[in-house]
Amino acid sequence: MPSYTTLITTDILAAHLDDPNWAVVDCRFALLDPAKGRTDYLAAHIPGAIYAHLDEDLSSPRIPGQTGRHPLPTPETFAATLARWGIDDSVQVVVYDDAGAMVAGRLWWMLRWLGHNAVAVLDGDWRAWLAEGRPTRSGVETRTPRNFVAALQPGLTIDTDEVAARLHDPTLRLFDARSAERFRGENETIDPRAGHIPGAVSAPYADNLTADGHFLPPAALRTRWTERSADNGSCEEVVYCGSGVSAAHHVLARAHAGLPLPRLYVGSWSEWSADPARPIATGA
Questions:
Q1: Residue-range domains of the chain with CATH
Q2: Residues 68-86, buried b or exposed e (16+ Cβ, 10 A)?
Q3: Among 23, 111, 241, 264, which one carries the catalytic annotation?
Q4: Is the pTM of this model over 0.85?
């Protein structure tokens, strides 16, 4: 049976809800109300789905002044979480949220970070599942634990020190996945300083989606990213956002488009802007 490694349709997922070698993970989360996602999950979710909390399961505790808002857990900690969720190398994982994969893309990326490529995001997310009248269940669900063996993939991330050292390196290209308003420094309500990393290009993650929350077709994504890159692929590309969550959306979109994958700056703007000595830029 083929594995699904980028996106998956509601039809295909619906046909595998009873397969023990398929694990569904609900990633719904609201940045300004961290309890909401779990509350919504308990009320209704895709049958068999377990819940992943962005702060508790997909991040390690923030260290003020040192890390961004959502630092990665250690590989060992996350591998133990995946084992508890009943995931091993034989399991097809499907992840979803209700925000166009803003959070689900983070879990997709993290599984690939530990070498598990059989993970796909539900295209159209929870909203498409509901709109199609598909079944739901309430309450907490669990899976029988399995043995997850991590195979950490090198070269997928970049840290603040390297970004700072290469700030004027013409072979490094930074893409900012936040909204254009936050990029320009006009509407910053989460992090203490407004603006963007000097030299970065505005590339809102929402541009990867259609108006109804589905991903654009691969050809359209390729065109969009080719226009943004403007360097014929000669530069090393890095994506960042506010805290290393929505930037993973760009890695997913590019994988779906068959393009080379950028590195993820996990600390992102929340880590970069925490040090007043680091330069920032505003405007377009």
A1: 7-131 (3.40.250.10), 157-272 (3.40.250.10)
A2: bbbbbbeeeebbebbbebb
A3: 241
A4: yes
